[in-house]
């Protein structure tokens, strides 16, 4: 894998961007000294990178997120340190962008810095089990809407197709076929297929990236 | 139908569409905004109506209009927004109109906060609006139930000609789970009372809640309560979990029931026989099973995201035969499995 200084994860909301971003940051930290993860989600009130704050801290990863995330304040505000994420080039940065075009609007004001530095990977996270992106054409529409809103072109696709705890290898394989089609439509490469760690070995694909899933308090044992 | 991965709020919207709802009126509020967002994307593609009203009051009265014409209509909001809708809800009840109101609850009172809560239990089950009336109140505890109970709510509302409410909370609205969506059904209303034009072939139908003669209004109320009695007799839904041999019975709905199940698993590992009654209909409340269970358990624990609202219905149901304690967090906080476990251990030890 060729690591860029800035990796951005964007996509349809609920496609698994946050989980992927957290895993990616932890992997980056194994290779590089300073890693920062930034939560640019100004749309979603719950389930944020802040949920993984303890884990990220344990790995020595710096975090930047709205001071209001997971609080009772419903303000679409981002902290000023967010500029440091794109301007300070001494750190490797992971940006978790909010879902859909509405979420990507927040990226707009940071886009000029990222484009000027030109050392970024803008990843479209696709989960073809999501009802409004069940085929390549619908996912492509979302992709274009996000690019338009965020001002940064996508450079690659990640197949993150999953059905949560009901995911089986076939789920990922079916998703990868649709991702291939999206790749043809958009002209972008598929970077990898992200699969929950215990399933990763069972998926017969070339580019499998095993990920850990943040467990939530309401999931049954 | 293959499963898809959905947010609870999206599941409500898609299930409503599949149940034949083509009219959605709403106003954005966290944590239920995805219902409106989903409707705004889907409705124009299927010839339906998505309308962001100028206020919650306006939205609920648009529902009143569509329901009068016999079609399936819904509105959704979160706690402060549902308070605004109460006048319209009372009017819907007073006109015997079927409709669906969704409340994805957040912390209160007042503007409160955006994190999950169950503190609108009183408002939903005891009537937040004025007058003698009830709503059918359904409480989903999974994304699958968000979908299934949305369809059920429309069916029950039509069957009894009364408004129904889906009472969820922020966590249920925001969490993502695999869901098998109901098959789409074409909705053909069979409602001779609707105001759809007489075409000079029948008498006028009137949808109205104003009665100038008190005797007539009294009669109308009496008839409505006969209908409510039949709902109470026929439509109670609940889930029992490990209650067969239980010494301690947890009562919880929605997200609180999910946390409680984890606590019960832990309690059983420690040799404490705990079980759960999960009301699925909050009105009609499953009083019968609680009364029956009172004879065989040491006591009940009401687990709620409120200062203790459902606990009153539990006490009424079991007629104070056994102690009922409260385990709760409020203001957007959720009881942890450990907190519920501690409440179970405390009751097992004889502390009430």
Description of the molecule:
The complex is a heterodimer of chains A (221) and B (352). Chain A is built from eight helices and eight strands, in the order βαβαβαβααβαβαβαβ. Chain A is of the alpha/beta class and 221 residues long. Chain A has one domain (6-211): Rossmann fold, CATH 3.40.50.300. In chain A, helix 2 (53-58) links the parallel strand 2 (35-39) and strand 3 (62-64). The termini of chain A are far apart. Chain B is built from 13 helices and 14 strands. In chain B, the strands form three sheets. Chain B has a seven-stranded mixed sheet with strand order 3-2-4-5-7-6-12, with helices on both faces. Chain B has a five-stranded mixed sheet with strand order 9-11-10-13-14, sandwiched between helices. In chain B, strand 2 (23-26), helix 2 and strand 3 form a beta-alpha-beta unit. In chain B, helix 1 (8-18) runs parallel beside helix 7 (143-160) and helix 3 (56-68) runs parallel beside helix 5. The longest helix of chain B has 21 residues, at 214-234. Classes of the chains: A alpha/beta (221), B alpha/beta (352). Chain A binds chain B through residues 13-14, 44-47, 70-74, 127, 129-132, 134, 162-166, 216-218, 220-221, and chain B through 3-7, 10, 14, 30-31, 38, 41, 107, 112-115, 170-171, 174-178, 181, 255, 258-259, 261-262, 265, 331-332, 334, 336-337.
């Amino acid at each position: 894998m060729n690591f860029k200084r800035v990796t951005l994860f964007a996509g349809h909301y609920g496609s698994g961007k946050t989980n992927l971003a957290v895993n990616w940051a932890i992997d980056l930290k194994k290779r590089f000294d300073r890693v920062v993860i930034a939560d640019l989600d100004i749309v979603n009130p719950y389930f944020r990178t802040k949920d993984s704050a303890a884990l990220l801290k344990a790995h020595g990863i710096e975090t930047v997120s709205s001071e209001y995330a997971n609080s009772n304040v419903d303000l679409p505000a981002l902290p000023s340190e967010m500029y440091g994420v794109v301007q300070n080039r001494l750190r490797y940065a992971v940006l978790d962008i909010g879902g859909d075009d509405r979420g990507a609007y927040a990226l707009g004001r940071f886009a000029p810095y990222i484009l000027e530095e030109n050392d970024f990977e803008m990843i479209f996270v696709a989960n073809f089990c999501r009802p409004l992106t069940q085929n390549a054409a619908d996912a492509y529409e979302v992709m274009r809407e996000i690019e338009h809103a965020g001002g940064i072109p996508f450079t690659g696709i990640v197949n993150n197709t999953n059905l949560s705890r009901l995911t089986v290898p076939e789920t990922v394989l079916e998703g990868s076929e649709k991702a291939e089609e999206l790749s043809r439509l958009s002209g972008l490469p598929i970077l990898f297929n992200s699969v929950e760690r215990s399933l990763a070995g069972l998926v017969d694909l070339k580019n499998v990236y095993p990920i850990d899933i943040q467990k939530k308090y309401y999931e049954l044992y | 139908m293959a499963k898809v991965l959905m947010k609870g709020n999206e599941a409500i919207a898609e299930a409503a569409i599949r149940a034949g709802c083509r009219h959605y009126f709403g106003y954005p509020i966290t944590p239920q905004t995805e219902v409106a967002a989903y409707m705004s994307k889907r409705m124009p593609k299927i010839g339906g109506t998505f309308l962001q009203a100028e206020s919650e009051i306006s939205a609920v009265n648009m529902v009143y209009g569509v329901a009068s014409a016999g079609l399936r209509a819904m509105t959704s909001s979160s706690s402060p927004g549902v308070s605004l809708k109460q006048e319209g809800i009372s009017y819907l009840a007073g006109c015997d109109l079927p409709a669906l109101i969704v409340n994805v609850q957040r912390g209160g009172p007042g503007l409160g906060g955006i994190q999950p809560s169950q503190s609108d239990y009183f408002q939903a089950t005891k009537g937040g609006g004025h007058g003698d009336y009830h709503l059918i109140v359904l409480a989903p505890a999974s994304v699958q139930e968000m979908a299934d109970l949305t369809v059920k709510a429309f069916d029950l509302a039509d069957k009894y000609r009364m408004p129904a409410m889906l009472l969820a909370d922020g966590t249920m609205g925001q969490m993502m789970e695999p869901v098998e969506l109901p098959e789409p059904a074409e909705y053909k209303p069979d409602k001779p009372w609707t105001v759809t034009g007489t075409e000079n072939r029948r008498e006028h139908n009137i949808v109205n809640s104003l009665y100038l003669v008190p005797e007539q209004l009294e009669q109308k109320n009496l008839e409505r309560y006969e209908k409510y009695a039949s709902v109470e007799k026929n439509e109670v839904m609940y889930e029992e979990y490990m209650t067969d041999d239980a010494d301690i019975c947890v009562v919880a709905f929605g997200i609180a029931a999910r946390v409680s199940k984890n606590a019960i698993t832990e309690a059983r590992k420690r040799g404490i026989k705990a079980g759960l009654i999960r009301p699925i209909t909050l009105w009609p409340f499953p009083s019968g099973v609680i009364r029956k269970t009172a004879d065989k358990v040491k006591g009940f624990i009401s687990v709620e995201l409120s200062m203790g609202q459902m606990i009153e219905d539990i006490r009424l149901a079991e007629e104070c035969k056994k102690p009922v304690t409260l385990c709760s967090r409020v203001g957007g906080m959720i009881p942890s499995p450990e907190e519920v476990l501690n409440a179970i251990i405390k009751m097992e030890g004889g502390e009430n």
